DNA sequence: TTATATTATCGTAATATTGCAATATAATAA
DNA sequence: TTATTATATTGCAATATTACGATAATATAA
């Protein structure tokens, strides 16, 4: 098999899983951190920042674009990338919805 | 290849990616949500909740245990699972560190 | 036009993930 | 002891992911 049975789960569960997958590689985490810190459009230097080959980075960028976390516009010969603020907020909320579900079980230690 | 080049990235980047991987499957999201909502020890019923075979769920539980998000203790014949509060806090902070890095670029729309 | 520079896509090899049947293990009950 | 019940492990097939060389596409410069 090797194929996820998405039909068994809710849209929210599948959405969160899909987004989490975008964060599930250190190169993509690094790209996101770099764009967050720069807080502006970045072109090119990503390839020099990370130690991966250009096609590999291009592929990671494609995945991040696919889920909408980043956006890129052609700027002459190169492409400028930055965080998509609206989608970023959405993603943040997706995770926070889960994180805030937790409340410490009071007066009883669980297992 | 197919193998992630972890040596190129920081411990934090690899850690976040590893944790994100735990969230990167709807079945594991469902398990986490179920434990969060129950807010107590759950045994067994997970297999009935999700529509996956018992070995498959056992495998997902193993992965969640491996990164420390959940813990299980043997309770007679069955096993009680619950969220690990300390690790949950850590994971929450890992993500929040990233989310709070973002500040809306003021007075300039990016790309 | 022909170069040059930057990014994207294709093709492919290596490895990882998902799912489950079969089986094993562990704890209690009879 | 021998059931029974619940969970874990093994082994394997199908599919997905990661990485990169080769090459294509795109935009500007000469």
Automatic annotation (TrEMBL), chains A, B:
Name the record gives this protein: Winged helix-turn-helix transcriptional regulator
Domain of life of the source: Bacteria
InterPro entries found in the cross-reference section: ArsR-like_HTH, HTH_ArsR_DNA-bd_dom, HTH_MetalResp_TranReg, WH-like_DNA-bd_sf, WH_DNA-bd_sf
CDD domains (UniProt xref): HTH_ARSR
PANTHER family: REGULATORY PROTEIN ARSR (PTHR33154:SF15), TRANSCRIPTIONAL REGULATOR, ARSR FAMILY (PTHR33154)
Record keywords, A-Z: DNA-binding, Transcription, Transcription regulation
Taxonomic source organism: Fulvivirga marina
Alphabetical list of SUPFAM superfamilies matching this protein: Winged helix' DNA-binding domain
Single GO molecular function: DNA-binding transcription factor activity
Domain annotation HTH arsR-type: ranges: 8-106
Pfam family, one: HTH_5
